[in-house]
Design goal:
single chain, 16 strands, about 475 residues, three-stranded antiparallel beta sheet, Arc Repressor Mutant, subunit A
Length: about 475
């Protein structure tokens, strides 16, 4: 039986975090919570005789993304009319870029689960306007135009992706870059970042490009992965049955996990692109590009490298910390508060992530202040509390937002390190367990852990393990000498 290789390219639509829309002065609002049709004007509602004006900030954000994706920023770019019926875009066409995009010919390196990396080529990143939103209620359709005209950056990869693992890695890396740049907040549940996967298959070893399908409007990375995986399986089954793949636009059914036909796919000619007559071309000077380049923030790859080389973190810890900008920001706020990098990374990627996953919250909702985490770490280093007790304190900090010192004092959790307070416990345990003492003296010295465990039970976990270990050894060795 023949084996098949997937050929996948992604189109990513990212709303840009400008204050106003792409071609008018209407404010950009959260389309999931704002009252419908409250930020609409004559331009974005396509009234006769109005003229659009290009949003300069959107162009700057587009240049930032192009630079971050190693693209060539084109000196000349031009908007065009894409003639296509959008029921939720009043003009009946979309202003986009096609022949002359803002940036092109870039690349993005992705890291794969097996430890390898791969470079994915970026064909173009161009500006356009978003559509409104349709709502279907019974036999009626309602339109909200708040989102119509919001600046949108479409990022188109070459068909360089070959597995769903590569698709996921590319999507996560691109989302992370957009959030680091501050041009998109990455909340896919609100539709500000949407994926479209172009999928085809071919016999393994072939270099041909076969008929593809396009899966539209995937609003989560999980859906992107599920839809792509299903479509590969669907096309493979067709090939094995000697049936053709029809070029078409597909939707994804979240409940069934299947792709479904929406319409026969249009070609570029069907859109009848022509230069937008109401907008001038965009000319980008080298000086403007360099000014924007100089203002770029530290991006995930650079931050990860710094965490490894400057802070001494493992590559794995660094990758986990930089994957989400908000997590990286929290971690660095702990360092600024006086935390040591490795111990801070252990607490953030360990206990904090565990509690966040259990509570199903994000880092922005965490109540633990950076300075309080540093204080907790120092309580452990000073042996005021044990690591086990620290986890108990941390859990209450997570729940209440209280400081660690207050929790330790209110619950009497301070570690007992005073030898005089522990020696009587040690001697009582030795006296009460002659059989275990005999085994220890006969050479089974690993029993020291058992003795310490008994003392920790008596002290309700507050005994200093190091001090107890020392006291038990001293007294047991004294018995050995007296034999």
């Amino acid at each position: 039986m023949a084996t098949y290789e997937p050929v996948i390219g992604l189109e990513v639509h990212a709303e840009l975090l400008t204050e106003s829309k792409m071609f008018c002065g209407c404010p950009v609002v959260d389309s999931t919570s704002a009252q419908p049709n409250t930020t609409v004007c004559a331009i974005c509602s396509a009234q006769p005789g109005v003229l659009p004006v290009i949003n300069k900030k959107a162009v700057e954000y587009g240049i930032m993304v192009g630079l971050a994706l190693n693209c060539r920023i084109n000196e000349f770019s031009q908007f065009a009319r894409k003639s296509y019926f959008y029921p939720d875009l009043p003009k009946g066409y979309q202003i986009s870029q096609y022949e002359f995009p803002l940036s092109s010919n870039g690349w993005l390196d992705i890291d794969l689960p097996d430890g390898s990396s791969k470079r994915i080529a970026i064909r173009r990143a161009h500006l356009e306007e978003d559509t409104g939103k349709s709502f279907h209620v019974g036999d009626h359709s309602l339109i909200d135009l708040n989102r119509a005209g919001v600046p949108l950056l479409e990022i188109v990869s070459e068909p360089d992706l070959r597995t769903v693992e590569e698709v996921e890695a590319y999507a996560r890396k691109l989302r992370s870059i957009l959030v680091y740049l501050g041009v998109n907040h990455g909340d896919m549940s609100k539709g500000v970042l949407r994926f479209e996967a172009n999928v085809s298959i071919r016999p393994a070893g072939s270099h041909e490009f076969n008929t593809r399908t396009e899966i539209k409007n995937l609003n989560s990375i999980r859906s992107l992965v599920r839809a792509t995986k299903y479509e590969i399986q669907r096309q493979t089954a067709l090939a094995e049955a000697s049936k053709p793949v029809i070029q078409q636009t597909m939707g994804f059914n979240e409940q069934t996990g299947e792709t479904v036909t929406q319409r026969i796919k249009e070609e570029a000619d069907d859109y009848r692109y022509f230069p937008e007559p109401d907008l001038p071309p965009v000319y980008v000077t080298e000086a403007w590009v360099e000014e924007i380049r100089a203002g770029l923030p530290e991006l995930p790859d650079a931050k990860r490298l710094r965490f490894v080389e400057k802070l001494g973190l493992s590559t794995q810890d660094a990758e986990v910390l930089v994957a989400d900008k908000a997590v990286a920001d929290y971690f660095e706020s702990v360092l600024r508060a006086g935390g040591e990098a490795k111990s801070a990374a252990n607490w953030v990627t360990g206990e904090l992530f565990r509690l966040m996953n259990t509570a199903t919250i994000v880092i922005q909702q965490v109540k633990i202040q950076s300075a309080d985490l540093v204080e907790l770490i120092k309580l452990v280093e000073a042996r005021t509390i044990s690591t086990t007790t620290a986890k108990e304190v941390f859990a209450e900090m997570f729940e209440t937002g209280a400081g660690p010192q207050a929790i330790v004092e209110s619950k009497g959790l301070a570690q007992i390190s005073d030898e005089s307070a522990l020696v009587s416990i040690v001697e009582r345990i030795i006296e009460a367990n002659p059989s275990e003492v005999g085994s220890y003296l006969s050479g089974k010295e690993t029993l020291i852990g058992w003795f310490v465990g008994q003392a920790m039970k008596e002290t309700k976990g507050q005994g200093n393990v190091q001090v107890l270990n020392q006291l038990f050894r001293e007294r047991l060795e004294a018995q050995r000498q007296g034999q």
